[in-house]
Each structure stands twice: as structure tokens, then as C-alpha cells.
Amino acid sequence: MKKTFPVIFVLIALSILGILFIQISWLQGLMFLQKNQLSDKINQSGVLVSNDVAKKMNSGLSFRLPKKGLSLNNDYHLHNFEEITISDIYNYEEMQKKIKLALDKYGLNDLPFEFAIADKKGNIEMKSKKFEDVFSDDINTLQARITVMPSDIMEPAGPFETIIIIAPNIRYYLLRSLLWVIVGVVVFIIVVLAAFFITIRSLMTQRKLVEIKRDFINNMTHELKTPLATISLAVDALKSTKVNTDPKSVDYFSNIIKEENVRMNKHVETILQAAQLDKKENELNKQEVDIHDLILGVVDSFKLQLEGKPSNVQTILEANPSLIKVDEEHLLHVLSNLIDNAIKYSKTEIDIALQTKTLNNKTCIRIIDKGIGMDANARKHIFEKFYRAHSGNVHDVKGYGLGMSYVKWVIDSHKGQITVQSEVGVGTAIEIILPN
For the chain, which end, N or C, has fewer CB atoms within 10 Å of the first or last residue's CB respectively? Predict the structure, then answer.
């Protein structure tokens, strides 16, 4: 797993980068294609306007009187005649309407535009309000220049008037027109990235789980091997004639076998609990139980362990009523796990307080110790399966990291609540609230 994980990570990362590159390149290509198509439509719209205007214009041989009147010389020759221009036929509003209708015909009804009419010398004779603002912007605009040639000219010859149409903010317009395509691409990229992170996270979780299970198997083997070896030695000792003839020695080795048997049974019970949680086969068998009797019974079962160290166990049992409907066997294991942890993670002296009280028709159980405590990270992961809090310099703490996950499951199954308050060097307080 350690060797293949980096390879899998690199391959998946390269695949994701490849997909992102293809998606972005495709989107850029689509933008370029849309821009070219838009440019063609604007030019076609301009041609449509140009053809319409050209039909109403006279040929280059037709003349009109100048605005300042006629001027005749002595030879009766006519001077200062001027050709008819677009601005003589159409005003600003009419030209704007013609261009708008032409754009609408090609599906560009929402395209903002500016326009101008240039005469034969290139001078602007008619323009929209913002034409000059956008005319010099070649990057963010599309410009179309269409020459207007009168339709009755047999042999066209320039120069002619020009219609200039400019579409401003073209990038924004294209992005808006491709909004759903872009949204789809972004969503697809997000989905791909999410899949990538979920996959990597799953691989890391699996990797961590493999390491945890390996440690669990090693720990379990050691925990089971130790009592078995002790029992084997005790049995061999009992077989000897010297021990058989000494009643005190027989009692001593018999007690060792009994204690190690109890210890091994606890290990087996813990493993079975974990297996049951995996299969979700636990069913609660609720019945009325006196919580005070249950707590006192559990404390009494730890009598030998408590006698091994200076101990102070306080029981402040104030719940009223003390009868609650729970699964007695599961709750017994919960209390045993919590008290066992309080003893294992104690300092040189065991100091534990067990309290009960009734709050809002619910029974509150508090187990408080003055042990080594936990930091914030340990509190965060304490209910995770196989997780074991670091015990600092305490190296003789045994366990599989299954107890607290089991405790959480039992309390949740009873629709109760469990909270943990702890501080390194101060101790830990665990509060359980169960419905009556």
C-alpha cells in the first residue's frame, strides 16, 4: 500500500489535469468559434442594412442642390452640385432602427451596439452617443464596416459611404450567451475534483485502517498471549509435587489462573463487541434497571484493581427515580469501559467520582477522574474506532481503542447523549444523559 499509493495519486492527478486541460481548451475553442460566428452575423446584418439603404439612393450621376443654393457663372455652367448622402435620406433614429431590425433577424436581439455613417472621405456624418468611446477599443469589441453602393450604378467605383457597426463588451456578451455551457463545464470540473479528493481521502482512510488493523492484530495477539502464557505456567506449577503439598501455593496459583481467565474473557468480549458493531446485529433488550445498583456493582467488580493503587472512589447517587429502562448488559459494559479507562489513565493515585442526578425527566450519569486527561485532538477522535489517546509517559496502558466507540454506539442506541470534557494534567469528566 505504501508503494502503490504515490503511484495511484500521481496517475489520478495527471488524469484530472488532463481532463481540466481538455475542458478549458474546448471552452476556449468554443468562445473563439462563437466570436467568429457573431462577427459574421454582424457583417451580414450590416450588408442587409446596406442593401436596404442602397435601394433608396440615386446613382452617382444624380445630383441635388447644395444647401447654400445654386451658383452660376457667366458661361451658364452649373457649379457646386452635391451627391445625395445617407444622412440626407435617413435620420439617426431611422438608421438605428434599421440596424436593430437587421440584428434581430440574425438572432442578435440582445446585442448592444454603436454605429456611425462615414462619408466618402472617411468623415463621420452620423454617429451614436457612445460610438467614440468604443471605436478605439479593438480588444473588447467587434467592428463591421460595410460599404453602401447605390443599386443603379452599372460599374461601381469608389469611394462610397460606409456603415460602421460596433459591438462593445463582446467578451461579456459571449460569456453571457454561453452561460449554461460554462456552468456545465464548471460543475463537471467540480464533480471531477470532488471525485478526486474523495478517492484520495478514501485511499488514505484505507491506508490508515490497514495500519490500525495491523496494530490491532499485533496488540490483540500480545494481549491474548500474555494471559495464556501465565495460565500455562500456573498449570505447570500446580503439577509439581512441591506446590501440590502446599495449600497456600495452590490457592495462589489458582487465583492467578482465575484472574488471567477473567482478563482474557474481557479481551474476547471486547473483540466480540467490535464484531457486533460491524454487523449492526445488536438489538436492545430494554427493561427497568436500578442505575444505582448497577453502578455499585460495576465499582465492586474493579475491587482488585483499585486495591493495587492508592484509591479514592466517591459515589454521589442522587437520581430520583433511580429506575430507568435500558439494556442492562450493554449499559453494564459501558460503565465498565468508562471506569476501566479512568483507572488505566490515572496518575499515581486513583481518584474517581461517580454521580447521578435527574434533569428534565432524564437521568444524568457523570464519571469524573483526576487522571492524565486529554488534549483537544484526542477529544475530537475519542469515539472513533481503534483510536487510542496517547498516554504521554504511561507505557503500560493496554487496550484496542474499541471501548469508546462501543460506548458511543450504546448511548446513541438508547437515544441518549454523551459529552466529554478533559484537560491535560487535570482529568476527564464524561457525562451521559439517558431518557427514563
Answer: N
